[in-house]
Design brief:
four-stranded mixed β-sheet, 366 residues, two-stranded antiparallel sheet, alpha+beta, 2 domains
Length: 366
């Protein structure tokens, strides 16, 4: 068993020590970008040794122009098949599909013959067409409906995945475009996030009040998830998908204060105790909102939900105040008529987020 090397670092070393020397010698005029900006836990630095059981290992994507892809792709792939080592830092460089699951690759231990490597030669537009169902070019204006249907997990990999070589400049141009949501799209998502809290914040107590502690716990967990999403939005960080949602949240500045409280909410035995801890979290997130300076200062103290004995932060106040700051007329109309936010706010379905062919239909929501 090879000593574990985080996949981002393994890919960088593999490119610099095994792939780039071959490209420099055999294709000296080729201009390209190289890195990892697609799927895989290693792209975001979340991988562990268990990640190496499939679809992980020495690999890199080479992003080239349309003309160079047509001229060089076959030659590059074939040259590397015969020039790459069979192992790199203890890991096989050849891969094979898992039986009955041809779309999933694992290490293939070979000692002779050509290497079935994972060095892809693609154009950035080709990659994005499959990854986002989006026709990209450098001077494209990203539409509002695109922003709202691009999953944050994918935006995170595209903007934070490692780049090892930047001679073409396409990836840099893409990152300039997708670095983070435009101001009014961001406001809309913040408003939608607070709106989600307003919809369920009183249910934690109501469930508990009728003896449904399980239902109260479920509502509490949902509210925590919504507060965590607001944390990502307020710190202007794209959120990873559910498997790494908590891991990514732990890297936010607000996590140090909020995580211990969230644990107390989830371990509370009664709804009253659960509510008390959640109110502490509300106050912190409300103060974070005020720290953004995007609306007038709003109360950070909880109060009763109308005439009922449940303490809430009144998320609708925050949502309404933020919506009033939206200037773009199109986004303002969306905020007033389709308050669901982006795909990551209204659905946690993996099938919906990952199936990029559905994105054009989702755009019709807006």
């Amino acid at each position: 068993m090879a000593d574990f090397i985080p996949g981002r670092e393994l890919a960088r070393l593999f490119f610099e020590e095994s792939v780039k020397p071959v490209l420099d010698a055999e294709f000296p005029d080729l201009r390209y970008d190289a890195g990892l900006i697609d799927t895989g836990s290693e792209v975001l630095g979340f991988d562990t040794p268990i990640s190496s059981d499939h679809h992980w290992g020495p690999r890199v994507s080479l992003f080239v122009t349309e003309a160079d892809k047509a001229q060089y792709e076959s030659a590059i792939v074939e040259t590397l098949r015969h020039r790459l080592p069979y192992r790199f830092r203890g890991y096989a460089t050849s891969f094979e599909p898992i039986p009955d699951e041809p779309h999933i690759l694992r290490f293939a231990e070979i000692d002779s013959g050509p290497v079935n490597h994972r060095v892809g030669v693609v154009t950035l537009n080709e990659m994005l067409t499959g990854y986002l169902n989006w026709d990209w070019h450098r001077d494209i204006q990203v539409e509002t409906a695109d922003w709202l249907t691009f999953p944050q997990q994918k935006l995170r990999t595209l903007t934070q995945g490692p780049i090892f070589h930047d001679a073409l400049g396409d990836v840099a141009a893409l990152r300039d475009q997708l670095g983070y949501y435009p101001r009014d799209v961001w406001f809309y998502l913040l408003a939608a996030g607070w709106g989600r809290i307003s919809q369920e914040e009183a249910f934690l107590g109501r469930c508990g009040d009728v003896g449904d502690e399980l239902g109260s716990r479920v509502i509490a967990a949902r509210l925590i998830r919504d507060l965590m999403m607001l944390g990502f939005l307020m710190e202007r960080q794209y959120a990873p998908y559910p498997k790494w949602f908590g891991t990514g949240f732990a890297r936010l500045t607000c996590a140090g204060r909020l995580t211990p409280i969230f644990h107390q909410v989830l371990s509370a035995e009664t709804w009253q105790e659960r509510e008390t801890y959640l109110c502490e979290a509300y106050a912190i997130v409300a103060e974070m909102h005020n720290g953004l300076g995007i609306t007038e200062r709003l109360p950070t103290e909880v109060s009763l939900y109308h005439e009922r004995p449940y303490r809430v932060i009144h998320g609708d106040r925050f949502s309404e105040a933020i919506r009033k700051q939206i200037q773009d007329e199109n986004i303002k109309h969306i905020a007033e008529t389709v308050a669901i936010g982006s795909i990551d706010l209204f659905s946690d379905s993996t099938d919906l987020r990952e199936n990029s062919s559905l994105r054009q239909k989702l755009k019709a929501l807006y």
